[in-house]
Each structure stands twice: as C-alpha cells, then as structure tokens.
Amino acid sequence: MPRFFFNLHDGVDVRDGEGVVLPDLNAARKEALRGARDIMASDVKQGTLSLDEYIVVVDEQGHEVHRQTFADAIRIEQGRDAA
Amino acid sequence: MTSDPTLEPMARKLEMWGPLNDDDRAAVLALPYTLKEIPAHGYIVREGDRPTHSCLLRNGYAFRQKIVAHGERQILAVQVPGDMVDLQNSVLRHADHSVQALTKIEVAYLPRQAIVDLAFARPEVGKLMWFDTLVEASIAREWMASIGRRDAYTRIAHLLCEFALRLEKAGLGQRDCYELPMTQEQLADATGLTAVHVNRTLRAMDESGYISREKRAVIILDWARLAQAGDFDHEYLHLN
Predict the structure, then answer these.
(1) For residue B176, what is the DSSP state?
(2) pLDDT recorded at residue B205
(3) How far is CA A69 from CA A29, A33, A72, B65, in A?
(4) CB of B150 within 8 A of CB of B160?
(5) Dihedral in degrees, nearest 10, Cα atoms B40, B37, B190, B221
C-alpha cells in the first residue's frame, strides 16, 4: 500500500517526515480532510480559526497529489435567522 | 531444580504490586503456556472472541483497540513488554475489545483456567493479579480524562510522560530517553486526534525545547515542563 505525506502549511510549514500508509489517493484525500477538520476543531476550542491554512498531500516520489485548504473543509453559515 | 524462566516477566510484573514468596513465585513460573510469535498488526485476541487464554507479552509492544461505526479506530491502551495483556480474559466470558501487535511480538498464551485456579489456590498471587487489572483500569480512566478534557498538546505531552515512566519501570528505557515504537497515526488513534495534528503538535513540542526526537527515540529535555504541559501526575500509575 502506498505511503502519503501530509504537509501542513500554517505559516510555520510543518513537514510530515513519516507519512501514513493508505490504500489509495481517495483515502489520502479523506485523511487530509479529516486532519484539516481535526486541527480546526482544536483551534476553535482555543478560540481561534485560520481558514488560510492548507495541507499538501505528497506521494512517495515527492509529487503533490492533493491539496486541502481549511476553507474548503467546512461550510460556514452566518447571517441567517438574525433576531 | 531450576525453573523454566519463560514466565519470569510475569512474576516480575506481579511483583511491581507486592511481594511473591518463593513458593508463589515458583507456581507462577510453572504455569502451562504456549509460545507464539505474532507479526506487527497481528491479533492476540479479537473483539467478540470467547477467550480460552490470557497472554503474557514477552517482548514487543501491543495495543488494545476498538473500531467505531465509521471504521475509525480508537487505541485504548498500549502494552509494554512484561505486561499481562488480557488478564481480564481469564475471567470475562468474551473479549470486549481487540488486542493487536504494535511491533513483532512474542507472547506466552496461558490457559485461563490455570490462571483462575492459581489465583484462588494462592490468594497472594490472585491479589496481585487483581491489583494488575485495577491499575490498567486506572490508566484507562486517566486516558478518558485526557481525551475528554485535555487539549491536543496536553494529551500528547501526557502520553509521552506516561510511556517514559512505564518503560523505565519495566526496565526498557530511561524516563528521559526511550524508544516509542508508535507511528504518528497510532499516536493519533490513542489520543483521539489525526496524524497531521499529532505531527503539528510534536513539532511544537520540539520547538518548545521540551523534547527532541530522533526517528522513534523520544528524548525528554525538560521533564518538569513537559509534565506541567501534560497536566501529568504519576499517582494514577500506582508505581509505589
């Protein structure tokens, strides 16, 4: 099974030196989405949220195979049902 | 008459909780067993099994896990060499979680009836086995508190401190330098996070100067600060 690397670009550029073994690219996309939401959820609990961050998924040859922005990872609603 | 030393790690583990006299110790070493090598990711016991044996982890590391509805895994505990991995399965009628090898492991399977018979024939041994399962429950409660109420950074710092002490007590490393044979994905499954998040958190810890990492080796540079960051108090381990 292939290994994918999930590099977080959050202004500090956290490189993934270890990667995750996953069945295929589709699974890697899901993992990137999961990771983005997990980090965002944690940040929200701390009272911050940065939609500018993104995760670049790279294969074992070093090629970018997917990119997940935090902005695309969630749907934000605002301005409805204002009392 | 020299006894078979194969189950020596079990005797030592029980002695963490109290003394064993010579006869009791010899009786532990004389338990029947079957040795088995299991490759990494292999199962020691599966959730739902009706277990016939408990198992001593002679070397290598194992973990307890459950898979929840959408296929996501929660690692419930990590077992280090010398641990009695599923002593509870000598008494409970079915396995309520799975136990898998983290690394390649060697286990000694012990027939559950033999364990129960020994525990009641020699109550001091039985009491130490009981103590062992209770400490596991204490660790599980602490993990519950971590996953329930600690943030990502604190959870991971806490885990690193816990492993440091458990491995040191098992004679497998120093509290400020040890090998952690877990991937970031496994650490994530143990802390209710994702691998990306674990990676970010470990990097932040490196930057704080609390830890240094070299492949799988974790070097704790500042115990006091890491323990504080991890909200770590060792009492739940019942080590003394």
Answers:
(1) T
(2) 93
(3) 11, 9, 5, 31
(4) no
(5) -90
B162/chain A closest Cα distance in angstroms? 22
Please answer yes or no on whether A18 and B184 come within 8 Å at the CB atom: yes
Whether the CB-CB separation of B99 and B64 falls below 8 Å is answered with yes
Residues of chain A with Cβ-Cβ distance to B194 below 8 Å are: 31, 34-35, 38-39
Helices and strands in chain A: count of H runs, count of E runs: 1, 4
Q: Which residue has the tokens 């070397």?
A: B59
- Residue ranges of chain B whose CB lies within 8 Å of a chain A CB: 151-152, 183-185, 193-197, 199-200, 203
- Hey, are the CB atoms on B196 and A10 less than 8 Å from each other? no
**Shortest Cα–Cα distance, B154 to chain A (Å):** 12
User: Measured in whole angstroms, how far is the alpha carbon of residue B40 from the centre of its chain?
Assistant: 16
Q: What is the pTM of this model?
A: 0.93
Nearest neighbour of A14 by CB, restricted to B151, B185, B200? B200
Decide if B164 contacts B172 (C-beta within 8 A).
no
Tell me the pLDDT tens digit for each residue of B169-217: 988 888 888 888 899 999 999 999 999 999 999 999 999 999 998 877 8
The two most distant CA atoms of chain A are separated, in Å, by: 54
DSSP B87: G
Structural tokens at position B198? 């674990």
Block mean pLDDT (10 aa), chain A, length 83:
96 89 97 98 95 97 97 91 61
The model's confidence at residue B1, banded by pLDDT at 50, 70 and 90, is low
Q: How far apart are the C-alpha atoms of B19 and B37, rounded to whole Å?
A: 30
Q: How far is CA B16 from CA B85, B131, B240, in A?
A: 15, 10, 8
